[in-house]
Amino acid sequence: MHPASTPSASPLVPPGAPVRLAVREIRKTFPGVIANDRVTLDVRRGEVHALLGENGAGKTTLMNILYGIYQPDAGEIVIDGREVRVRSPRDAIAHGVGMVPQHFLLVRRHTVAENVALGLSGTRFLLPVRGVEMQINAFADRYGLRVDPHAAIWQLSISEQQRVEILKALLRGAEILILDEPTSVLTPQEAMQLFGVLRRMKEEGKSVIFITHKLDEVLAAADRVTVMRKGRVIDTVPVGMASKPQLARMMVGHDVDFQLPARHPGTGAPALVVEDLWVQGDRGLPVVRGVSFVLHRQEILGIAGVAGNGQRELVEALTGLRRVERGRVTVLDRDVSRWSPRTMSKMGVAHIPEERIRMGIVPPMSVTENAILRRYEEPPFSRGPLMDYVSATRFAQQLIVEYSIQTPSPRTPARLLSGGNIQKLILARELSHRPDLIIAAHPTYGLDVSTTDRIHRLLLQRRDDGAAVLLVSEDLDEIRALADRIGVMYGGELVAVVPAGTDRETVGLLMAGQRV
Amino acid sequence: MGVVDWILGVLVRGMALGTPLLWGALGEIYAERAGVVNLGVEGMMILGAFFAFAAAQLTGHPGLGLLAAALIGGMAALLHAFVSVTLRANQFVSGLALSMLGLGLAGLLGRGWEGFPLSNPLPERSILPPLGALLAVAIWALLYHTRWGIILRTVGESPAAADAMGIDVALVRYLAVVFGGMLAGVAGGFLSVAYRPSWTEGMTGGIGWIVVALAIFASWDPLRAIGAALLFGTLFHLSFRLQAWIPPEPLQMMPFAFTILVLAIAARWGARAWRAPEALGLPYLRGER
Ligand SMILES: Nc1ncnc2c1ncn2[C@@H]1O[C@H](COP(=O)(O)OP(=O)(O)O)[C@@H](O)[C@H]1O
Ligand SMILES: [Mg+2]
């Protein structure tokens, strides 16, 4: 079931419900950004309050202030009618605030029980885990958050890890629970389950702050929604009175109508052939297990899946960054299974890496230097041992205009650009030489709507020009919008390749490891 | 002399030298489990050796000597904790500086005592070797079966997770580093009041460095540290015993060469078993990204 088709699943909180938490005029700046600008909102008892905003809107910053991780520059926090100072997470916990951060704070090598027992007051000194296990099981039943207390965190799936984070907060008596983008790591079905858990918490009178940048989820799970944009609160409205286009406009700041060009019919010759590929993960275990597929020119093959199902290792193997244990990778009729990233790139394979700052650019080097990173040792950028910075700068300037990269100058260190502009710089570099094969991992992760749209158009255009595109993404909507075929990875296997029009539900089930 | 006697003799002496190795290694493991590397072991040990000697000589009680060693070790470690936890400086540089500081300071203070034998030493096979083994078991139980153990290990694996649960990361790290330093001090004290009851400048002779390697070799497990310390103690002692047949220089290199070998093996093949605490060596600042 598509969340959009469900009306607000929970009854509205009576407007008279008492305010449990209020923030007034909160301001927080980081060097060069006003992350929170006079933010004011209130959360009632027994309410699921959505905080909607694009990436960089300041949602996480506000929650980190509520949880005592950041100190605000100005403003106040009022809990149950009293102004409080939250100097540390310890203070936040004492005031009944719990948080499930976007990037979980769990000790991977410890068990679930150890993670929960940590700092839980009232656990005994000796053998603390025993009593905690029973508590975990009791809470797990009450909220439908089943998880094995003895399991080590690294053995759990991402959604199970999320349950542990929620349990941690609940067991510590959280009355106000903050969930930062909880659905970004879940399949659509798992997200629906999570909404069920939120409903149960609500029934017990708890308050939930639910952060997201997806409109459908707001409509499916929240009672009221506060929209943030560029550090400011735009408005708070009851969900029953909000429409999707209206929320989108508030979130983005202008009308949203990003209709992508129509699908191009027909495909070309095979560009990438993968046969029975096996790849090891960082722990030395096989994490890509016998993957086979063919990708043609003029085709976008989307790889969907929940994070950690072998997608990263697959991409690294295909770009020469990780050793191929078994199987064969053929690019444009040449066996490249043992090739280095350098030769792959020389052959015309473009790589848009998952970690754009760590792997996509050299942060302290200038935009110009980053722009020629692929071809710095060729003319016209260098002659013999000498660099020709004049032509390099000319080239960079050309890319800056063509890809509308916002930078003070080509000499600016790349690290000073915003995430979206760093990504545009990477795309410019990788796509400018007309690659035959493009391997893009999460190309729009964390970017705003207009940059995302621009990148989507670039990929579609290259496809129409004859390139083959492998698009790995956790964003099912992105894959459904761009891909000609959708492959789903689960547990290191490519469990299915389905046509583009396949409904969300089916793909979601495949992502959860169910055969359909 | 029969072969059996010879071997037994070597083992007994190996255990004697294994004792300071064990105490030192337990201290280092304890601190590293909280995420702080302390390369100042050599310095804390030599300070412990000198203060133990001086206190034992002046009071006439070797036990008071060991107490003084624990105190000075803890104080030296406090300095390291301040620099690496509060000031968040590079832990490795701070530890190295502490080693040099300790060696220099002990040398300076010990000028007048150089070569002095201790009048009332502790017997080498005193309570310290069994106490060391007992301590290892106690620290193991503390780490794995108590609330404090979970807290300490979490601080070493993920200080951010500990902080988010309301735990004072800096406090835990201070306590761990200081306790570790106290054990290192006792390890040094054992050298000057029991193993070689006297004071000589530089009498730790590099044992502190082996202690650091032992923490890794034992894969941060206090129980494994017992065997590891015994092994290295024996090796160390062998390098004295074999001097009758082999020139001393290569022999003295033996424990260190073996250390390098062991670490190389651990790095190459033991990657999974030898997993260091994840936040080892990393200063923590809330909200930093
Ligand atoms: N610790 C930090 N240091 C510097 N800048 C930060 C920090 N945290 C957030 N920011 C900046 O503040 C802005 C808001 O970020 P954030 O609150 O994470 O947004 P959201 O969660 O809505 O995506 C962004 O421009 C981000 O780069
Ligand atoms: Mg965020």
TrEMBL record, chain A:
InterPro entries, alphabetized: AAA+_ATPase, ABC_carbohydrate_import_ATPase, ABC_transporter-like_ATP-bd, ABC_transporter-like_CS, P-loop_NTPase
Cellular location(s):
Cell membrane
Q: Which SMART domains match?
A: AAA (SM00382)
According to the UniProt record, one GO cellular component term is:
plasma membrane
Task: Write one Gene Ontology MF term.
Answer: ATP hydrolysis activity
Say which domain of life the source belongs to: Bacteria
Transcription regulation in keyword set: no
- Protein name in the entry: ABC transporter ATP-binding protein
UniProtKB/TrEMBL annotation, chain B:
What GO CC terms are in its UniProt record?
plasma membrane
Keyword RNA-binding recorded: no
Give the UniProt keywords, A-Z: Cell membrane, Membrane, Transmembrane, Transmembrane helix
Name where it's found: Cell membrane
As for membrane topology, the entry says: Multi-pass membrane protein
CDD domains attached to this UniProt entry: TM_PBP1_transp_TpRbsC_like (cd06580)
Tell me yes or no: is Cell membrane among this UniProt entry's keywords: yes
Alphabetized InterPro entries for the sequence: ABC_transp_permease
Which spans are transmembrane here? 6-24, 36-58, 64-85, 92-110, 130-150, 171-193, 199-218, 225-246, 252-271
Principal localisation: membrane
Q: Which PANTHER family match?
A: ABC TRANSPORTER PERMEASE PROTEIN, SUGAR ABC TRANSPORTER INTEGRAL MEMBRANE PROTEIN-RELATED
Listed name of the protein? ABC transporter permease
Q: Species name for this entry?
A: Candidatus Segetimicrobium genomatis
